[in-house]
Design brief:
- β13, α9 and β14 form a beta-alpha-beta unit.
- With 283 residues, this protein is α/β, with parallel strands linked by helices.
- The chain has 2 domains: 147 residues, Rossmann fold (3-Layer(aba) Sandwich); 114 residues, Hypothetical Protein, Haloacid Dehalogenase-like Hydrolase, Chain: A, domain 2 (2-Layer Sandwich), CATH 3.30.1240.
- It has 10 helices and 14 strands.
- The strands form 2 sheets. The chain has an 8-stranded mixed beta sheet. Strands 8-7-6-9-11-10 form a 6-stranded mixed beta sheet.
């Protein structure tokens, strides 16, 4: 692997979480070590995730990071400085909740400080996922981490949120989004057996690359100094933006086609080997 020549050898490394840095919520020790070594070598390392900050438990952040691009670009924090905090405008939020409710959706409203859900949604998630996760202790720990972090509220009308995750709906989420308007977009759930009513709904002009660009601008870096790792559909813009893009093996064909490099899966501690190959562990 080769690094593009730029004025500074410092890199800003952005890591997707699920399926990249962690596998079903479990972080390989080698990944933790790689992050710490890269930071000691003078590079910046940030998590860049579709999750809101409120759904990043301590075990995912324990390695220590320079910041977070959370909510798929809706919220960005660098050190203690919040660079981006984008929420659904009030009228659009009300329209989205009304449309989801009209189609029997069970969903979360994701904000940096808390993720809100009606008690029925939390109960349904708790009842369904243990059966699905029975084969994997890691998946079960991940489910508990999510459900325990949800803030139950029957009335969601006053919640200011940056993204919505639907667990179930009686219509495909993409069809529900069309009734709301072009201001929103969706991606399907990473759990296919949840059906077409499950997925993520977000502001159409917000994605991970928007958050990364805010960090790059704040630090005065060039895009060539950005290294991005991802595996999912919400990583496409991030990999397109980065000077060095790394897809995880088994990613969607679109990601593999545009990536400069392919890393092994987190089950095989792929980031550790990729960090070494890219020279990110050198002082």
């Amino acid at each position: 692997m080769t690094i593009p020549a730029v004025a500074s050898s410092r890199r800003a490394v952005f890591l997707d979480v699920d399926g990249t840095y962690a596998h079903h919520g479990a972080v390989p020790d080698a990944h933790v070590d790689a992050v710490r070594r890269a930071r000691r070598a003078g590079h910046l390392v940030l998590l860049c995730t579709g999750r809101p900050l409120s759904l990043l438990p301590d075990h995912l952040t324990a390695a220590g990071f320079d910041g977070y691009v959370a909510g798929a670009g809706a919220y960005v924090v660098l050190g203690d400085e919040v660079l981006v905090d984008t929420r659904f405008p009030a009228a659009l939020a009300a329209r989205a909740i009304e449309a989801l409710d009209a189609h029997g959706a069970l969903y979360f409203l994701e904000a940096p400080d808390a993720t809100h859900a009606r008690p029925a949604t939390i109960d349904a998630m708790s009842a369904y996922l243990p059966r699905r996760d029975a084969r994997s202790d890691g998946e079960e720990r991940g489910r508990r981490a999510v459900t325990s972090a949800l803030r139950p509220s029957e009335d969601l009308s006053g919640v200011a949120f940056g993204k919505i995750t639907s667990f179930h709906a009686e219509a495909p989420l993409v069809e529900i989004a069309r009734t709301i308007g072009p201001e929103v977009a969706v991606i399907p759930s990473s759990i296919p057996d949840l059906g077409p009513g499950a997925g993520e709904m977000f502001l159409a002009d917000v994605h991970k690359a928007v958050g990364i660009a805010a960090v790059v601008e704040r630090l005065g870096l060039a895009r060539e100094q950005v290294v991005a790792f991802g595996d999912g559909p919400n990583d496409l813009e991030m990999l397109e933006y980065a000077g060095v893009s790394v897809a995880i093996e088994g990613s969607a064909p679109a990601l593999l086609a545009l990536a400069d490099h392919v890393a092994a899966s987190p089950e095989r501690s792929g980031l550790a080997a990729a960090f070494a190959d890219l020279g990110l562990l050198d002082g």
